[in-house]
Structure formats: C-alpha cells, structure tokens
Design goal:
Elements lengths: L1 H24 L14 H12 L8 H29 L6 H31 L6 H12 L8 H29 L11
C-alpha cells in the first residue's frame, strides 16, 4: 500500500516538481538559457505550449521511484526502529520513542532516496532529454561515486523534520483514536 500511494503521488506531483526544479535552477543558467517563468501557472502553461504536455512528466520514472522508495523506507524503518527501541532500551511507547524512531527513519529514507533524487533533479533540470545510461556514465565520469549523495545534507534537513512531524502526528492520532474508542478496536476487541 505504501509503495502504491508513493508511486501515484509521484506521478500526480511530477508537473509541480519539474517546475520547482526548473525555477530554482534558472538563476544558475546563463541569461540566454533562462526560462524566466513569471510564476508557477505561467511555467506550467509555457512548458505545455513550448515543449508539449510531455515536458510536464519529464523525469516521472525516477520521481515515482523516489516516491515509492521514500514512502516504503519511511514506514518500514520507522516500525523497525520503534520495535528495536522498545525492546533494547528502557524507553516505553512514548514521545521520546516516536521522536527517535522517526528521526532515524528520516535518516534512512534520505540515504536510500539520495541517488534517485540526484538523477531526478538532473533529468528535470535538463534542456534536452538524455538516456539514463548516458546520464549516469557522464555523472560518474565527472563526479565519481560521490554523485549519489550530492545534496544529502540539505535533503535530510528538509526530510528529517518532515518525517519526525509525520510520525509524531500519526502516533498522537492513534492515541487519541484509541481513547475515543475506549481502548477498543473496530470489532470491539480490547487494544
């Protein structure tokens, strides 16, 4: 379920992601190559008119793969870390445990997604389409293996707090739901 929701979210959000990457990258380009979108709607309209509707889905494969990896790695690692913390530390199922497990889950998700993030950004910011194999060969030739973790720290600074807040809210929501249900599940069994 996590992979499917991540995949569909990656597809749905791809046009906005392409636009975001392009607008951020524009200032780094020579003036003659800048796209100079006035605002987001202008960017989406101009991309469709000037490059065709397919330009809105440039990089959809790595973007969707990243979303699958992100969602699955966050959920799986959070549950795993929470279980480890509960069984190997004196912490109980509380805010400290949820914070620690979610922080570690953010670390794992950032690390797993970093190579795909780099590929996705390079594809989306490119003026012309380049095959994945050729792109990877060029990046590796210029940057070596370090390309895979280019921008890891800024990604973690963004994703770490996002993951922490997501799971803290999830755990509080579950706690409140259980309290409202009187400690009983959907079929009336004691939780």
């Amino acid at each position: 379920m996590a992979s499917t929701s991540g995949f569909l979210g990656g597809i749905a959000g791809n046009p906005a992601d392409v636009l975001n990457v392009r607008m951020q990258h524009d200032a780094a380009l020579p003036v003659s190559q800048q796209r100079k979108y006035a605002h987001a709607l202008d960017g989406l309209i101009r991309m469709s008119r000037e490059e065709g509707w397919r330009s809105l889905f440039r990089g959809v494969a790595p973007n969707s793969m990243r979303a699958v990896l992100m969602t699955a790695s966050q959920l799986a690692s959070y549950d795993g870390f929470k279980r480890l913390i509960l069984s190997h530390t004196p912490l109980s199922d509380n805010l400290y445990t949820h914070f620690s497990a979610s922080f570690l889950a953010g670390f794992v998700a950032t690390t797993i997604c970093s190579p795909v993030d780099v590929i996705k950004t390079r594809i989306m910011s490119a003026k012309e389409s380049e095959g994945l194999g050729r792109l990877l060969g060029r990046i590796y030739g210029v940057e070596g293996v370090g390309w895979m973790f280019r921008g890891w720290l800024p990604s973690f600074v963004r994703l770490g707090p996002h993951t922490v807040v997501t799971f803290l809210f999830l755990e509080q929501h579950k706690r409140i739901w259980r309290a409202l249900k009187g400690g009983r599940g959907e079929e009336g069994a004691k939780i």
